[in-house]
Amino acid sequence: MDKEQASPRREFIKLTVVATCGTALCKCNKPAGSMESASEESTIKLLAPDGSLVEVARSQITPLPDDQLITGMAAREGIPGKRFVMVIDLAKCNNARACITACQKMHYQPEDKEWLQVKLMKDSEQGAPYWFPKTCFHCDDPPCVKVCPVDATFKRDDGLVLIDNDRCIGCKFCMAACPYSTRVFNWDEPDLPEEIAMCTSSPETSVPSQVGTVDKCDFCPDMVRQGKLPDCVTACPNGVFYFGDEVEDTVTNGVETVQLSQLLEDRSGYRYLEELGTKPRVYYLPPTDRMFPYERSLEDLSEERKAMYKDII
């Protein structure tokens, strides 16, 4: 897209007119004590997400600082000097599902659509089952990126693999290529609050979802830019998820901060399906000395959800 084509969208991003959209990149307000009457107010025409022009009073517009508007090439390049990584401690997981709920709330996803899943795994007939949280693995050699015909899925310098939903054509090639089955397709028009549906899409927020496109776990890069942890990390009551920077050799679960290399060495960290050669940026710590018996985590589940694990238990 050249500069002339991009300018209307860029102007809309900077001068958005909807209410504050949480993680999305837009906000508006009415300055207190405005003395100008409605009939005297000057207006400005803005480009709405559907391509139409809307006329809005200038007093309703609060431009966002440029450093908050992470779109275009900035969203594709990533955060300079960073290489993000996640470590998941399987010994601590009891399928509390707080991580899933937090992710769904953060990205305005319905309950039946999970970007982060918790599987029940068993390595052998004699072994005991254990809970296995599964996010996008943000691979360093991602098959999904290679097969996308329109460059909608891309790999950033900071390690993250993201999706530009404005480019996505819904071919689902990336879903077929992903060996971890971590991507979901938006078959239906998302049921969103009006102010969220009006927000401008960004690969860093993955909000709002768009029908006919693919979504997935994004590691919450908009939160990371603010110095915050992804919501799944902070929501987990047991400190299962560690997130950090490989360059700094540091990860944290919000309670303790540890040296990444030492943690992986001491706990025999590994990468899921390493033999595929995708070089995932998510490491697992084996489920040794588990904090909870897996059976306890089944007690509060519905019969329908318990049935999902019948082949394991």
Account of the 3D structure:
- This protein has helices spanning 3-14, 72-77, 98-106, 143-147, 173-177, 194-197, 221-225, 231-235, 260-266, 303-307, and strands at 43-47, 53-57, 84-89, 117-121, 130-134, 153-155, 161-163, 184-185, 214-215, 241-245, 250-252, 257-259, 282-285.
- The chain is α+β, with helices and mostly antiparallel strands and 313 residues long.
- The strands form five sheets. A five-stranded mixed β-sheet has the order 12-11-10-3-13. The protein has a two-stranded antiparallel ribbon with strand order 1-2. The chain has a two-stranded antiparallel ribbon with strand order 4-5.
- The longest helix has 12 residues, at 3-14.
